Amino acid sequence: MKFSLPKVATAPFCPSEVQGSIAVDRGAPFFKRVLRFAGPGLLISIGYMDPGNWATAIEAGSRYGYNLLFVVLLASLTGMAVQCLCSRLGIATGRDLAQLCRERYSPRSAKLQWLLAEVSIIATDLAEVLGCALAFHLLLGCSLTFGIVLTAFDTLLILALQNRGFRRLEAIMLVLVATIGVCFFIELVLIKPYWPDVFQGFKPSLSAIGEAAPLYLAIGILGATVMPHNLYLHTSVVQTRLIGSDLASRQDAVRLARIDTIGSLALALLVNAAILILAAAAFHQSGHTEVVEIQDAYHLLDPLVGGAFASTLFGIALLASGQSSTFTGTIAGQVIMEGYLNLKIPCWQRRLITRGLALIPAFIGVWLMGEAAVGKLLVLSQVVLSLQLPFALYPLIRMTGDQRLMGEFVNRWYTKGLAWAVFVAISAANLWLIAQLFSA
Q1: Is residue 35 predicted with pLDDT exceeding 70?
Q2: How far apart are alpha carbons 292 and 200 in whole angstroms?
């Protein structure tokens, strides 16, 4: 039986005030098409290396050396598979995940999904607030409270970038990601890890997670990797590439999006692996196996390396991580609000609402617990994200497996099997993690 292809929107959907599209000519050389399509995956990769990932990677490296590197690898491969589904959905339907949920589910279900998605945005922004505030605290010597105040002013950066177009935003994200990568590359050169042991850590090992403590950390790494807001964001930003409406053009777009996604998330994999390798080489190998806080890692790098250069690079990378995540979190918030509610508000208003809601728990936590609040609140933000992830992943898998919606782009049987296996694994892992946290 033949199915007609879904109608493609004549202009790609963009969150309000972050407009701009890039035409991709299918007649151009392949390498030039790849470069023109590159960018959406880079925005998505930011969520895979935000401050929420740092705490689990640092603790895993300091406690267990390189043994959990394979978990970082598997979590990143899972993210690649999920994000490829997102790009396929956006290209095939011309709509994003939030819009499709509003159209295909009852108003009550759609509003519940919207509320959960908004909670995930706030949880993500909380991690960004804490990461940036901690970076200011470490680099400038200011209090954590004042660092949190400084993070409120990133709204000015958002205002300066609105109406600049996605291409410029993507270029800025590339600079920030490159900053993170260069900082960790230099730190690894200074630390000099033993690379045969590093490569051995990428080999899957059930014995490495055979006990409760390393298994807890492994699930934490998985839960901190695939971010719910990234699923909504990717289905939207992939539409900033103008393509033809014929089948061949759209098939080419799916291939180009897959290359962009896998390449960008491979960079995120390298950064996350570098964080764990740094912690393993600097702390585990020297007997500092109790380093579980980001600020502890910063302060211990000085005496271990023999100078303040490595710790300064660490702080700069943390600041770049938190700030880049702020940009993508704002765009994701726009996508979710416009998609679920069909409501458009200025970008700066969206930024103020999200950041204002994230500042409240950050201020209260730091006021009550001091520096100890950072690690606890970062873990809490990851738990909240874990709770919401299945609610975003389920409709994504259902929709990409619906031939009436996807037409020729529907998931093949093996893709469906892999997607549902990922859903079950993530849901079970997150439920186990949450149960352990509440029983602790």
Answers
A1: yes
A2: 23
3 state DSSP class of 50: coil
The residue that leads in pLDDT, 417 or 120, is: 417
Mean pLDDT estimate for the chain? 82
Helix (H, G, I), strand (E, B) or coil at 227: coil
3-class DSSP state for residue 292? coil
Tokens 């105040």 belong to 149
Tokens of 412: 């093949």
Q: Which letter does DSSP use for residue 238 in this model?
A: G
- How far apart CA 221 and CA 299 sit, in angstroms, is 23
End-to-end CA distance of the chain: 55
Q: What is the mean pLDDT of residues 28-46?
A: 86
Separation CA 299–CA 296 (nearest Å): 5
The residue-averaged pLDDT of 79-104 equals 94
Residue of 202, 227, 204, 252 whose CA lies nearest to 82: 227
* Contacts with 209 (C-beta within 8 Å, 6 or more apart), sequence order: 68, 71, 215, 218
248 contacts 30 by C-beta, under 8 angstroms: no
What 3-state DSSP class applies to 414? helix
Phi and psi angles of residue 317, each rounded to the nearest 5 degrees, phi first: -65, -40
Question: Which whole-number Å values give the CA distances from 251 to 87, 245, 322, 407, 412, in the listed order?
Answer: 12, 10, 35, 12, 15
Helix, strand or coil for residue 284?
helix
Look at residue 19 and tell me whether its pLDDT is greater than 50. Answer: no
Structural domain spans, the chain: 22-439
Please state, as a whole number, how many other Cβ atoms lie within 10 Å of the Cβ of residue 331.
24
Q: How many CB atoms lie within 10 A of CB 206?
A: 6
Per-residue pLDDT tens digits for 321-334: 888 887 788 788 88
Q: How many residues does the chain have?
A: 440
Please say whether the beta carbons of 400 and 85 come within 8 A.
Answer: yes
CATH number of 22-439: 1.20.1740.10
Q: CA–CA distance from 377 to each of 143, 288, 359, 366 (Å)?
A: 17, 23, 12, 9
> Quick one: tokens of 58?
């640092």
- Residue 217's pLDDT is 79
Cβ proximity of 121 and 329 under 8 Å: yes
